[in-house]
């Protein structure tokens, strides 16, 4: 794993899974219910709001979605509901995306699944954080809610289950801390390097510098297609009123390995 920025390290109480919990191979059939479920670990539910470092780009300040827009071609104002320091998916209104574009980043996102919990599997507390709008870290209520492992909370959707299930109960604030290095392409469109992702879920390492096979997708694994080095970040509307707060990022230098 590449070195962790000091501000990130100080913000986390890191719990590292044992070496026995190796990342599961993507050779498993996509969305297989037979795939081994990641072991459950518990985290302190009272650990909460992580203040952004001084050099962070603040994507949500607790009161306004002015840095966000509709993710569709209209690009209109983000229609999700803002109140009490968080914002909430308004089901049926569609995904939202940042007005600015980003490449390699350290990203912090806090989210909470709806209460009461409604539905099972993929129909319970479903949303997603899409890096560059293409590479999804799954948001799902995975607290005592079985589903296919490559689609549970903190999975890189359809590719990598998390090393462990660090989910908290619905209604409890949870955090993702993500280190993302986007793909690079030659001028000809040929892939020069694939995307890599590290994820901490509630302070627990759940994705250890894994290499993506291409954009994430449902029931398919599309190949890389050349795209700009910076694209908007997106959040998914999957029909569930998931809440978000305290979203910030730090652009990373391309000098990072």
How would you describe the overall organization of this protein?
This protein has one domain: Jelly Rolls. Helices cover 2% and strands 28% of the residues. It contains one helix and 15 strands. Strands 1, 3, 4, 6, 9, 12, 13 and 15 form an eight-stranded antiparallel sheet that branches. Strands 2-5-14-7-8 form a five-stranded antiparallel sheet, with no helix packed on it. A hairpin with a 5-residue loop joins strand 10 and strand 11. It is globular. The N terminus is likely disordered.
Please, what is the average pLDDT? 89
C-alpha Rg (nearest Å): 17 Å
* Contiguous helical run count: 1
Report the count of strand segments.
Answer: 15
Please state the overall shape, judged from the principal axes of the Cα atoms: globular
CATH topology: Jelly Rolls
Q: Return the domain count.
A: 1
Share of helical residues? under 10%
Low-confidence stretches: 1-22
Q: Report the β-strand fraction as a percent range.
A: 25-35%
CATH class, please? Mainly Beta
Superfamily (CATH H level) name:
Exo-inulinase, domain 1
Structural class estimated from helices and strands: mainly beta
The largest sheet is: 8 strands, antiparallel
Strand/helix succession: HEEEEEEEEEEEEEEE
Which CATH-level-2 architecture? Sandwich
Distance between the termini: 10 Å
């Amino acid at each position: 794993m590449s070195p962790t920025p000091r501000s990130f390290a100080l913000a986390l109480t890191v719990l590292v899974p044992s070496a026995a919990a190796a990342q599961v191979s993507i050779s498993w059939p996509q969305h297989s219910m037979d795939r081994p479920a990641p072991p459950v670990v518990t985290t302190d539910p009272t650990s909460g709001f992580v203040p952004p470092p001084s050099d962070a780009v603040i994507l949500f300040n607790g009161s306004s979605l002015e840095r966000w827009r509709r993710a569709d071609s209209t690009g209109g104002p983000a229609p999700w509901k803002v109140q009490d320091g968080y914002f909430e998916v308004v089901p049926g209104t569609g995904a939202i995306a940042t007005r600015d574009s980003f490449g390699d980043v350290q990203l912090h996102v806090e989210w909470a699944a709806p209460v009461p919990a409604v539905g099972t599997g993929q129909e319970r507390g479903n949303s997603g954080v899409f890096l560059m709008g293409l590479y999804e870290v799954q948001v799902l209520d995975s607290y005592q809610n079985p589903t296919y492992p490559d689609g549970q909370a903190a999975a890189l959707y359809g590719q990598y289950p998390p090393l462990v299930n660090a989910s908290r109960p619905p209604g409890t604030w949870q955090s993702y801390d993500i280190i993302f290095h986007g793909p690079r392409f030659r001028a000809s469109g040929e892939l020069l390097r694939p995307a890599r992702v590290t994820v901490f879920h509630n302070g627990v390492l759940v994705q250890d510098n894994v290499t993506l096979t291409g954009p994430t997708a449902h029931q398919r694994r599309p190949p890389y297609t050349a795209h700009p080095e910076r694209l908007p970040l997106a959040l998914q509307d999957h029909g569930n009123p998931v809440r978000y707060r305290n979203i910030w990022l730090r652009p990373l230098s391309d000098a990072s390995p």
